[in-house]
């Protein structure tokens, strides 16, 4: 008798789950299915499980494929189970290719191809729709984004879009996802929502067209280059009950939310200054270093470095000033943005050819908060007081690269949960678009002076 074992969360049970279990059963004579507990899912980074474990077990049981159902609740259990039950074949979906190769010393490992265009109509709750997602852009962000998708319940990646035909993309399309090019509307017909990760100058047009065709939009920053454009996008989304979210992933990381709560709690007194820095020595051939119009340090990092100031000090700054260093091609390689409020200041430092300490410091009348690099992921921050011996250390939970948190928020909003979007409000996003507009004016003025 050939024993097969597979594991999963099996949340919001759908056709893809059904077919995976069916094919797993076909691999042998006896199928063992491990269903993960909520606690273990949280520990391994799955962030928005909807169904209880009893519901998920019952859904697996209803398929009739499982000869035995067990609970997975700790790391290392797969090896224990393979040995305990005398398993011959371990199998999971192809989203996990390579992850479980270490089990080959114990049994055969089989990765089953994913089910394209899964249906959300099978067994799932009507209150939580599975979102069919398409991705606009097939560049370097794509493989990182796709890798995080499997940790979020209720979303199915069904296709990608790139207006140009390339023989090789920046990711390995091992799932044979359809890639559309040329006809954007045809691509949009296949999806409920889009994630826009195309070049900066295309974001607004793609987002606008998607909204006008009734699609929810998760858009990389900046979504718009002007305040008016941003206002029009968010107003259209509001009037048509659509979700528009700007993908500033720091805003959705749990640690950053905790940091804001501590800062606003009064622990450090009244906040008087916020200073954030994000720099990277980018490759000289990269878009950031070669595109004087839409590359550079400000457009690459300012959505992150401005975020703490906007969240903590608000949108009503009194003055705005830029200090910009350009290279010989006109790319802003280092940009400082200074904001002055009635009773506070803020500084946002951004660099693609200058390296500095990437930290966030929030100064108050009773103490300060220090979040070391990479503060934009907020894995750790400290509260310091006048007494140097008094330091409070916070180490929030953080999984993966952070994409799963913004994806989870986006899917929840599509399903009608927290449409207000307090983590990054429309007003805050519009305020940052206004700063972007002023930066573009300053940069264009400098470029015109150089030409003349």
Compact summary:
The chain is α/β, with parallel strands linked by helices. It has helices at residues 15-26, 38-43, 53-63, 77-85, 141-149, 184-188, 203-212, 227-239, 254-264, 287-290, 296-313, 403-414, 426-451, and strands at 3-8, 30-36, 68-72, 89-93, 108-112, 131-136, 155-161, 179-180, 193-196, 216-219, 244-246, 271-279, 319-326, 332-340, 345-351, 360-364, 368-371, 381-384, 391-394. It has an eight-stranded mixed β-sheet with strand order 13-14-15-12-16-17-18-19, with helices on one face.
Question: What do you see in this structure?
Answer:
This protein is of the alpha/beta class and 452 residues long. 32% of the residues lie in helices and 23% in strands. It has an eight-stranded mixed beta sheet with strand order 13-14-15-12-16-17-18-19, covered by helices on one side. The protein has a six-stranded parallel beta sheet with strand order 8-7-6-9-10-11, sandwiched between helices. Strand 10, helix 8 and strand 11 form a beta-alpha-beta unit. It is globular. It starts with a strand and ends with a helix.
